[in-house]
Amino acid sequence: MSRTTIALTLGAADLSLLRWAISPAWELLASIRALHAPAARGIHLPWLTAHRDDPLLRAAEPGTRRTRALTAGPRDHLPGFLAPTPASPLATVDDELELVAGTPADVVRRDLRGVFPDGVPAALAPMLRAPRRELAAVVRDLRAYWERTLAPQWPRVRGLLESDIHHRARTLTERGPAAMFRGIHRDLTWHAHAGSGTLTVADRAAASGPRRRVLDGRGLVLVPSAFAWPRVWLKTSEPWTPVVRYPVRGIGALWGADAGARPDLAAALGATRARLLLLLDTPATTDELARRTGLAAGGISAQLHKLAAAGLVRGHRTGRSVLYARTARAEALLA
Asked: What is the pLDDT of residues 111-168, one digit of tens each?
């Protein structure tokens, strides 16, 4: 597939509005896409195997066909209204699905025609006639899918996403936007100008629209994502705040592959301490590690103290939090 470079011009107002957020609705949609194309998402194999027969993919009822057609869609394009830009850093799936259900009818019709320029699939034709009614039914399907497939794992996923945000924000503060964007993904490059800058996106999703876009004070939201892997996704269309969704740091450890990848390390340190050491490829707090592992914060703290006593991790206070990071000794052990 040909690659298209898109240039986003950010003025001083856009830079002042730069923020991060987590989007459960986006993870929901991207996970459905992963189930439809599992060969390209091998990093999620444990989760894909567990949910490959989900009713949303297999059921033949007309309503389910509608939701499947809407969410699976063309390979590289999703209707913008399905994943609104998060309004707050920690929006819940209910918050976001409520926004989806309330999408204005003209936006629904515009997005459908944009995604399906050669004609909307038959299963989605009723949505052109009665967008709000059909969206309510789609939201019910998506909510049920979330409860079956993602809700049990969400604390762990969210912990990984929060850890990424801390890391990126710290990089921005300490090293500036060029280093921060470069570290996010190879497809992102920042060029600074006087009081402004240009973010170029080598956009594998081949987004439609002009190749040069001026954000004009609308700001930019950066959303780390588990299921976006391995690409960057961009949305700049109205009425949403522009958003870049990118693969979260440390995705390889999400589904427990770390637990079985280093049996030698587990034998030497114990399974829990070995797992924590592997998860600390990005510095994290005790609470973040608890969310990522599902273990109690008190137990995590005790294990971190043992790792610190062995010279394998070190705590660094930042404000009210303590970030734990691997030491050079730990890196040598893991090499």
From this structure: 999 888 888 888 899 999 999 999 999 999 999 999 999 998 888 888 888 888 888 8
Per-domain residue ranges of the chain: 4-21+156-249, 24-152, 256-334
Q: Give the CA angle between residues 207, 94, 132 to the nearest 5°.
A: 65
**Rounded (to 5) percent helix, strand, coil in the chain:** 55, 15, 30
Q: How many angstroms from the chain centroid is the CA of residue 174?
A: 23
Q: Which CATH architecture has domain 256-334?
A: Orthogonal Bundle (1.10)
Nearest to 289 by CA among 277, 300, 302, 298: 300
Query: CA torsion, points 16, 18, 19, 22, in degrees to nearest 10?
Result: 160
How many other C-beta atoms lie within 10 A of the C-beta of residue 297?
14
Omega prior to 24 cis, within 30 of 0: no
Q: According to the model, what pLDDT value does residue 335 have?
A: 67
Residues 190-197, mean pLDDT to the nearest whole number: 88
